[in-house]
Amino acid sequence: MTTFKKFEEIEIWQKARDLTKMIYEATGAGAFARDYSLRDQIRRAAVSIMSNIAEGFNRGGNKELIQYLAIAKGSTAEVQSQLYVALDQQYIENAVFKDLYGLADQIAAEIFSFIIYLSKSNIKGIKYKSVQIPNGK
């Protein structure tokens, strides 16, 4: 597996960013744009996916990253559930629903795989590297 130096290098984060852009497009016009509650909630859930991946990564340890990845995975399910509401209210076409739902599904599966990998890894994160502390003399 590749070593990441920045969260922007993580492919799952990049896909979450794409999903967020697509959600903003889908919610920006028509009746969906006027349903402020659903529009704002699905946007927040999409943003939550990428934000939690970034925050977990920058915490510097695998335990924290796994915790935040689990939250991000939950947010993908939230997006998917809200997509059903949008479809049922005829805010989006079936093809748009399938595209967005499918990308969210792919992101969730990749997050799960990443969690499994991290759980089995001996790498504990950058904050666990040994640090020499000057003796202060």
Describe the structure in brief.
This protein is an all-alpha fold and 137 residues long.
Describe this structure in words.
The protein has 137 residues and is mostly helical. The protein has a single domain (7-128), classed as de novo design (two linked rop proteins), CATH 1.20.1440.60. It contains 5 helices and no strands. It has helices spanning 11-27, 30-34, 36-58, 62-88, 94-120. α1 runs antiparallel to α5 (94-120) and α4 packs antiparallel against α5 (94-120). The longest helix is centred in the middle third of the chain and has 27 residues, at 62-88. It is elongated and about 50 Å long. Mean pLDDT is 90; it is low at 130-134.
Total count of domains:
1
Task: Kindly estimate the percentage of residues that lie in beta strands according to DSSP.
Answer: under 5%
The main β sheet shows up as:
none
- Could you tell me how far the N terminus lies from the C terminus, measured between alpha carbons in angstroms? 42 Å
List low-confidence stretches.
Answer: 130-134
The CATH architecture category equals Up-down Bundle
Approximately how much helix is present in the residues? over 70%
Radius of gyration: 18 Å
Work out the helix count. Answer: 5
SSE run: HHHHH
The CATH class assignment is Mainly Alpha
CATH topology: de novo design (two linked rop proteins)
The 3D shape can be described as elongated
CATH homologous superfamily identity: 23S rRNA-intervening sequence
Class derived from helix and strand content? mainly alpha
SS elements, strand count: 0
**Mean pLDDT over the full residue set:** 90
